[in-house]
Recover the amino acids of this structure.
């Protein structure tokens, strides 16, 4: 499942996977999420120092590349937010699971797109 194929036109091209490019992309399409990204980056740096490993930084970059991949497509971002809301508001377990699956599909497609 490709984010582009299923969720319309992209707002911006996919950014390079560097902290600067990802931050600039997020500032352009979802600036309200910059504090969240900054907090995650601080946590990743602290974890990298604590663990003497770059793995936390790599995971930060992949996670935010996927977040930005979703935000680049307004229809995908809206669908994800709606599915997350509906999963929490569901009356039955079956209904909740259905919306969790939708959320998961969108998130997996974003991770796959940025890993290609």
């Amino acid at each position: 499942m490709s984010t582009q194929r299923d969720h319309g036109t992209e707002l911006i091209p996919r950014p390079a996977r560097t902290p600067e490019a990802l931050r600039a992309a997020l500032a352009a399409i979802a600036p309200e999420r910059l504090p969240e990204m900054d907090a995650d980056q601080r946590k990743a740096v602290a974890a990298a120092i604590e663990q003497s490993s770059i793995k936390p930084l790599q995971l930060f970059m992949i996670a935010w590349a996927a977040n930005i991949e979703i935000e680049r497509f307004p229809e995908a971002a809206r669908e994800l937010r709606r599915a997350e809301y509906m999963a929490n508001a569901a009356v039955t377990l079956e209904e909740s699971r259905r919306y969790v699956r939708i959320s998961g599909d969108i998130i997996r497609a974003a991770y796959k797109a940025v890993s290609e």
